[in-house]
Amino acid sequence: MNTNKLQVFVFAMLFVVGAFTGCVDEDDDDKTTTTADEGPKVQSDQSVKIGFLNPITGPLEPDAPGFKWGVDEAIKDLTAMYADKNNSFEVIEMDSGCDGDTAASAAQTLVDSGVVAVVGAACSGASMSANAVLSAAGIPMISYASTNPGLSDASAYPLFYRNVPSDAIQGPAGADMMADAGTTSGSLAILHMTNDYGSGLADSVKAAWEEDGHTLCGAGMQGYAEDTTDFSALAASVADDATCTSVYLSSYIVDAAGIIEALEDKEYSGKIFGGDGPAGIG
Fold first, then answer.
1. Which residues of the chain have pLDDT under 70?
2. Phi/psi at 218 (nearest 5 deg)?
3. Taking every annotated instance into account, which residue ranges of this chain make up the domain Leucine-binding protein (predicted)?
4. For an engineered disulfide with 226, which of 81, 186, 193, 261 has Cβ 3.0 to 4.6 Å away?
């Protein structure tokens, strides 16, 4: 997990608790303090439960320990921040599985546990499903990694927040990056996972590329299931097409590595680009 991702994660934790801690037990006037200049009430002598959706299993499993480290560091900061209020903070960690069904079930457990807010999920599909459960219970969530453009729709995903940019921004940035690197019209292939993150980013890149007046190469844009392990046919479709001299990967870490290895096996010598997904650890 790189440093920037950890910083974003810790900030997400601080944002959630800073924004919503003061909303608990507001009717207990004896335990609140506020002035006109102090802003929102800050409760004293309370235990605050924070939900944490972590991809302990699934395609982002390699990142889970880094996310957990971020939680631990944020709790230290929060404890110090509210030391004079005698508050304690309890994190309830659940596995999102980077999967909609798993995340929805985990979200219900967090609701039943009495959390005031939730940090996560990481994967866009997991956040979408968890939001349906959490928003119905009036519980806000802030994601540190979900970038699907659809999540910006406050009507469809109420009480959802994130402190990472939408792929509606990353797509045009990626298109500009590839053009600046010498990728020309008719030379780009796009390979993407068919989950909410992979498809969302790929669609954004393709739309931006075509909006700039460019076309894709003969291999075009192709999707694959996120649990795919054999990328030989996918790599061959790019390497065997002479028009495809650049490829963009809308992927996670493990599948990106598999595709790159498969392209190497096919003696592909073109440029390879990617978004935030393959950044990984380090």
1. 1-45, 280-282
2. -60, -35
3. 47-272
4. 193
Residue 279 to residue 5: CA distance in whole angstroms: 10
Task: Measure the CA–CA gap between 21 and 13, rounded to whole angstroms.
Answer: 11
Amino acid at 246: S
CA dihedral in degrees (223, 228, 233, 235; nearest 10)?
A: 70
User: Which long-range contacts link 259-262 to residues 24+ away (Cβ below 8 Å)?
Assistant: 259/191, 259/231, 259/234, 259/235, 261/231, 262/231, 262/232, 262/234, 262/235
Fold for the domain defined by 3-162: Rossmann fold (3.40.50)
Element (H or E) spanning 176, and its range?
helix 167-180
Instruction: Return the SS3 of 188.
Output: strand
Residue with tokens 């919503």: 20
Contacts of 180 (CB under 8 A, 6+ apart): none
> Using one digit for the tens of pLDDT, what is the confidence trace for 51-99?
999 999 998 998 899 999 998 899 888 888 888 888 889 999 999 999 9
Domains 3-162 and 167-279 share a fold: yes
- Give the residue among 174, 56, 191 at the shortest CA–CA distance from 122: 56
Tell me if 249 sits within 8 A of 217, measured CB to CB.
no
Instruction: Give kind and range of the element (H or E) at residue 141.
Output: strand 141-143
Instruction: Provide the residue count of the chain.
Output: 282
Fold of 167-279: Rossmann fold (3.40.50)
pTM: 0.79
Spans of all domains in the chain: 3-162, 167-279
3-state secondary structure at position 221? strand
- Structure-token pair, residue 108: 């219900």
